[in-house]
Amino acid sequence: MSDTRRRVKVYTLNEDRQWDDRGTGHVSSTFVERLKGISLLVRAESDGSLLLESKISPNTAYQKQQDTLIVWSEADNYDLALSFQEKAGCDEIWEKICQVQGKDPALDITQDPIDESEEERFEEIPETSHLVELPPCELSRLEEIADLVTSVLSSPIRREKLALALMSEGYIKKLLGLFRVCEDLDNREGLHHLYEIVRGVLFLNKAALFEVMFSDDCIMDVVGCLEYDPALVQPKRHREFLTKTAKFKEVIPITDSELRQKIHQTYRVQYIQDIILPTPSVFEENFLSTLTSFIFFNKVEIVSMLQEDEKFLTEVFAQLTDEATDDSKRRELVNFVKEFCAFSQTLQPQNRDAFFKTLANLGILPALEIVMGMDDLQVRAAATDIFSYLVEFSPSMVREFVMQEPQQTDDDVLLINVVIKQMICDSDPELGGAVQLMGLLRTLIDPENMLASTNKTEKTEFLSFFYKYCMHVLTAPLLANTAHDKNSKDLQEGSTKINPVCPDNFQTAQLLALILELLTFCVEHHTYHIKTYIMNKDLLRRVLVLMNSKHTFLALCALRFMRRIIGLKDEYYNRYIIKGNLFEPVINALLDNGTRYNLLNSAIIELFEFIKVEDIKSLIAHIVDNFYKALESIEYVQTFKGLKGRYEQEKDRQSQRLNRYRRDARSLDEDEELWFNDDDEDDDGEAVEKSRMEDDFADSYGKYMEAKKVSDIAGAANGANGANNNGKAAAIPPASPVVTPNNSPTSSVKTVALPATPVVKTALVGLVDYPDDEDEEEEDEEEEEQSPRKRPRLSS
């Protein structure tokens, strides 16, 4: 399996008409029992797995291109290609395919798919007459040749026969010889015919013809023929551009002559396709598919050859980062790397990964830090394009490099800060570069593309890094353009608006709009970090200064920023807005807008409508309490009346809760009063009984002792009430006058309290032995105190 002749890449054509690399392996042709025929097998060189198993069908049209490609179609719209490392291996497999189909290996296509009518029309033609008879290649026959070439384009089988005839007789080079003669004679009619002929030959879509036409000794004459379009009054000067204007620059000398020739050829063929040939019509769009494939495989080959030349790329990056390299040389190096990255887009994902990893290992990112800080606009633009390729390929790779940068005392040297400064300093009036860079920054700080990383802490670490070292650079223009007089806070509410240093310059306004767009993205995706930053910098107040801008789009950006914050329904943000009275500039903008029905008016009303629909109570109360007088006259929408209604509903709800609380508290007092009254009746009964005992046994000490024992027993029987209601009894007014014989409060205290005191104390002494009693009393008291507060919550 080490035979490099049979080493191939397997390609399939996707829906976008781009070739997808299915892998690299070794091809063989063998009989497969399951498929009942000779088949092409490709096994992966990495693990031996089967990449391709395709039966060589007798009716399938196989095509050989550029000596190392075999292309064919299977089923509907499923194109396959084998790209061989060596021509010898391609020839071997091609011979096997032709042997199975009974075709001549000298042909570049085994057969062409044709419709049934053509099959019927040509089935009687003997195989020997497979060539179209071409007129002699002479000046007098150019019109006849042009008519023939034009006429065969509608028939696939006739296109094939014509292509074979052109190849077999070396006809192309003879035609190009006539072109030089016609140009020397200034024979415009002949030159116009040659334009039709060469254009028609290109539309034959045959790789074998392209190999001849795009060879070094023929391609400039082909370009010359295509200059003489009959529709043009004067011919184009494409050759002059390719030979004089377009100059091939070797930033590092390319020693491989084959590589240099391939680069020249690809540039010129790309020029023919993009510039010279007209845009194909719907009926002609497939005529140049082989030309597209020709360019595609050339680019793949160029990138592969350059990538394999380690010395070349090492030298490129060494000079790019060398301080001694002069600016013009560095400009050429940057443009080369840009072209190199552009070519890499033709690679398949697997190969593109390897390509960008190679660039990263060679130091592409440190080099970008240097060139993006240069004054040369062309260099900075090229560096931006390179940076965009890297970010689109792997944002994580860029983030990892940024976080590993040594933390200098000056944050300006950080790559992301260099990017931000280039965005801020974009001199383009339309800020084309700034828009591109803003999109790249958004990709870098987007948490969505951090989730797939194997490093789970990437999101936290990078966002912390960004807000610590980069956010102040991003917001600097915003803060600088919204600074205002500190005394403006002393203005009375509603008197006059703050007159900030608001940007009237259109370019500055555009820049601030870009920054606000990025900050709005942060509000949506960076919950914690951006919240902390907004609070610490009082950022929303500064942003809302832009509501006064004469540029409506900028005022709308500021409003959108606030709308995103309110849309989070975060009470931290809501309290911040209320405390700072940050609705004032929004409402001022609404009132200043007057009766104009425009986007600003609708956007502000939508903000308040959202607050109403979502019933954000704290904001509704703040708006109605502070601004309703100014807004109640707006009646063309029901938004503000709706806010007032919500506010009134909430007030009613709160008052109902308060009433319920009071009612519950009153019912609680009545229950306690009844409970205490029951205790009073018990105490009154005891007092009467005790006074009778004192009257009956006052004369005898022994009788008194017996009475004492009886009272002790009675006190013990009522111990639970006495212990639990000791504190309550202290709060009860003196006993009812009916207890005392003379209805005197003083005598009542004397007659009732004195004898009762030793009885109560004696009763308590026996019960206090349990230390938990005092705690229970305290808990009971706490429950009684807390219960009025708890009940309204439950009822609510």
Automatic annotation (TrEMBL):
UniProt record, GO biological process: DNA damage response
One annotated Gene Ontology cellular component of this protein: protein phosphatase 4 complex
PP4R3 EVH1-like domain sequence ranges: 5-101
Biased composition annotated in UniProt, kind: Acidic residues: 673-686, 770-785
Coiled-coil spans in chain: 644-671
UniProt cross-references to Pfam families, sorted A to Z: EVH1_PP4R3, PP4R3
GO MF annotation list: protein phosphatase activator activity
Biased composition (Polar residues): 739-750
Protein family membership: Belongs to the SMEK family.
Protein function: Regulatory subunit of serine/threonine-protein phosphatase 4.
Designated name of the protein: Serine/threonine-protein phosphatase 4 regulatory subunit 3
